[in-house]
DNA sequence: GTGGTCTAGACCACC
DNA sequence: GTGGTCTAGACCACG
């Protein structure tokens, strides 16, 4: 478990959990069939509520990142390389569409945005 | 009033109001000392509660976009051009810092991001 | 008329009028039986509503600073020197009582307050 | 909760709440990470509307006195001693600047003011 | 007419 | 349980 929770963030904790684990899977840091810690263990370790962990695990399963074997635990799905790329593309694309609209609202042009990207990368 | 409310959005209505008006001010579409519609008028026109409009107007005042004269109404502040640029820069910069972190999490490199920017602009 | 109106202040305009004129009377800058400008004239000059001026003049009369002669206008009352001192004392005393409470709330001691007084005087 | 609400005061309730709690924090009567009563509990105890309490809590958060964890409650921020002093100084200074002007308007000299301070402290 | 404040009551997401 | 948002309706001071 390599997770950082920010309790004071405006982002819900279960979503922080989901995003960090899913991106670890996408980037290949968590291998196929890796056995995730049990909900209770994770909750204890991260000092969050069991309900919160359960919600994150559920969302991970719903979106196909993990699968559950009753009585044994949760495991990382075998995601083919191509599919990973698809997901990555999709997530990034969706995010970028939202952001570009915001920058346009602020009156930035393409160059302004490019500069900002370089600066922060 | 050139405002579009999306009731289905997950973004609170008062925040939608704030963002649209503040960006109109930043972009100079609303001139200095322009008399905003009264909260009652705006509420009626936009078909939202008076309180919701008030919350947006309050936030606009708090952040220095407008000023209030009780009994007279709310007016666009005279923001010097330089200050507008500062605010714009600051907002965009803050947003970009957040986003770049996300793209990195997804494993995108600088080129990937640049391509996405171009695509959506 | 030596009055300064701040439209954006949180203090109501009629109260600004009242306070500035009453203190001018207390300090003797406006002599006894001085003929105040008519409500309409004052309103025009100060660019405020007639209603606002009327409210201020009424308050001045109610508190004994001026008297009205119907059809002739409003005049500064002949306030004996002793009475002026009384009013001054009373106003300042009331104000100070309020303020000291505030400073105590903030945890300032007598010395801190004295220093502040000297600094701002 | 050691709060006194004066319904007859001209000061809005939410502001009374804000001032009393913030000064308790500044004076160190409320420790860091102290869990404020929930807005519902406070509203019930103080016999005011939930919204009124919320408004006060919001202002406290905005000015950095407390932080909020949705679903958990509101907590007193860990304000370093130096920062507390800064805030205290700033508030007192602002107040004094305003008041001295008033006393001068009334024609009081430095000695008069000093006497008043001593009298009321 | 304007904004400022307060109320009671509701639904939601989150923990 | 918590806070976040929204509603309708009310009264006030101010201009």
Care to describe what's here?
The structure is a homotetramer of 121-residue chains. Chain A has 121 residues and is mostly helical. Helices cover 59% and strands 8% of the residues of chain A. Chain A has five helices and three strands; from the N terminus they run αβααββαα. The first copy, chain A, has helices at 13-26, 39-46, 50-62, 81-105, 110-120, and strands spanning 35-36, 66-69, 73-76. In chain A, strands 1-3-2 form a three-stranded antiparallel β-sheet, covered by helices on one side. Chain A is globular. Chain A starts with 12 loop residues before the first helix and ends with a helix. In chain A, 21% of the residues are buried. Chains C and D meet through helix 1, helix 4 and helix 5 of C and helix 1, helix 4 and helix 5 of D. Chain B binds a DNA duplex (15 and 15 nucleotides) through helix 3.
Chain-averaged pLDDT of chain A: 89
Describe the sheet with the most strands of chain A.
3 strands, antiparallel
- What share of residues of chain A is helical? 55-70%
Number of helical segments with 4 or more residues of chain A: 5
What's the shape of chain A? Answer: globular
Question: Could you give the distance between the termini of chain A?
Answer: 26 Å
Sheet with the most strands: spatial strand order of chain A: 1-3-2
By DSSP, the count of extended strands of chain A is 3
Which radius of gyration of chain A do the C-alpha atoms yield?
17 Å
Series of secondary-structure elements of chain A, N-terminal to C-terminal: HEHHEEHH
The SS-based structural class of chain A is mainly alpha
Question: Which residues of chain A sit in consecutive blocks of at least 5 with pLDDT less than 50?
Answer: none
How much β-strand is present in the residues of chain A?
A: 5-15%
The oligomeric status of these chains comes to homotetramer
- Work out the largest interface and the residue count of each chain: C-D, 31 and 31 residues
């Amino acid at each position: 478990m390599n997770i950082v929770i920010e309790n004071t963030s405006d982002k819900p904790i279960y979503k922080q959990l989901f995003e960090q684990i899913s991106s670890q899977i996408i980037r290949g840091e968590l291998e196929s069939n890796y056995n995730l810690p049990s909900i209770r263990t994770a909750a204890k370790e991260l000092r969050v509520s069991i309900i919160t962990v359960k919600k994150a695990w559920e969302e991970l399963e719903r979106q196909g990142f993990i699968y559950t074997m009753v009585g044994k635990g949760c495991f990382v799905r075998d995601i083919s390389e191509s599919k990973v790329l698809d997901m990555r593309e999709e997530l990034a694309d969706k995010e970028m569409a939202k952001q570009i609209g915001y920058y346009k609202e602020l009156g930035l042009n393409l160059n302004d945005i490019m500069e900002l990207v370089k600066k922060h990368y």
